[in-house]
Amino acid sequence: MPIATETTLEINLKALTQNFNYLKSKLQPGVQFMGVVKAFAYGSDSVVIAQKLQELKADYLAVAYASEGVVLRDAGNKLPILVLHPQTVNFDKIAERCLEPGIYSPLMLKRFIAFAESLNLQDYPIHIKVNTGMNRIGFTPEEVSSIPELLQKTTSVKVKSIFSHLAASEDVANRAFAERQISLFKKTSDELIEALGYVPLRHTLNTSGILNFPEAQFDMVRSGIGLYGFGNDALENKNLEPVASLKTIISQIHHIKKGESVGYNFGFIASKNTVTATLPLGHADGIHRGYGKGKGFVTIKGNKAPMIGNICMDMLMIDITGIDCNEGDEVLVFGKTTTAEAFAERINSISYEIITAISQRVKRIVVH
């Protein structure tokens, strides 16, 4: 691994490959794999990650919004791309870039059919999102019965897949809820398929679903957080490797006398003579203000250095008393040894929030 000379987010494609292959090994023959690359590929680099997934022969990609799919198409990615949460205003971008919208309501379906007919499109692929209990977006099972009648009146669109989302697939205590969701999805999708007269793909499992509900793989699975190294389970995390490592450097070292303060609003007052270091990393880079004042630590040459005072917009301070280090030395915020999941626990957060919060001004470095 290269030694950091500034704040960087290292993206390890070898780790991505390992994670992809491990998750693929959990699939039954013929089950397709959709890689979720929304939110800058969970805070890393969507173009780089999507290109590697294409090389690894993933079957599909998924993004949240049309603008994310546009970026991938403009970078030359050829895989089919599902837009999970399209907006009406972006239908033109979806069609121009051959993106595939997730249709989640009767109104959205009517609007997209009208749009497709206005362009004389034929059999444009759409994906029907069914709400089986998550209660965010999706057709209710009762609303699904209205879909065939709308589709029989047009040749502009065709259902490519039917999908849903599990609310707590990682939660063993609520396994019964996930099983009810899976059962409802099967029943609802069976009825829709019979009415359509053809068989779209079906998918409902996310990363934790892949690991915990192998009987519900249907035709395809979707993996997001697992690709980036987290299985939502301590045992499964051992089989996965974090793709992203956040590193920075020591900008300046200070020798603080007992009674002196550090940073804004006297967030740290030295109870004894203390050596501190300032890092070029702050809440504008994704380090939440919940850190600091002793919450959270970074690692320097294998030693833990607690964050002190208040996190600034562009800087944070750490206590390096007793640590042999110098200005310019590398500092690990999170990565393979101290994972983003462990880092998140310090402020009662989750790995998803930590990795997706890393600002786009932080330099990305791809490690092969």
Task: Give me the CATH superfamily of the largest domain.
Answer: Alanine racemase
Structural class: alpha/beta
Number of helices: 13
Low-confidence stretches: none
What gross morphology would you assign?
elongated
Major sheet details: 8 strands, parallel
CATH class type of the largest domain: Alpha Beta
Global Rg: 24 Å
Proportion of strand residues: 15-25%
Share of helix, binned = 25-40%
**How many domains is the backbone divided into?**
2
Major sheet strand order:
8-7-6-5-4-3-2-9
- Please provide the count of β strands: 19
CATH topology of the largest domain: TIM Barrel
Commentary on this structure:
- The relative contact order is 0.14.
- An 8-stranded parallel sheet has the order 8-7-6-5-4-3-2-9. The protein has a 5-stranded antiparallel sheet with strand order 11-14-17-16-15, with no helix packed on it.
- About 30% of the residues lie in helices and about 25% in strands.
- It is α/β, with parallel strands linked by helices.
- The radius of gyration is 24 Å and the shape is elongated.
- The model has no long low-confidence stretch (mean pLDDT about 95).
- It folds into 2 domains: about 30-230, Alanine racemase (TIM Barrel, Alpha-Beta Barrel); about 245-365, Lyase, Ornithine Decarboxylase, Chain A, domain 1 (Beta Barrel), CATH 2.40.37.
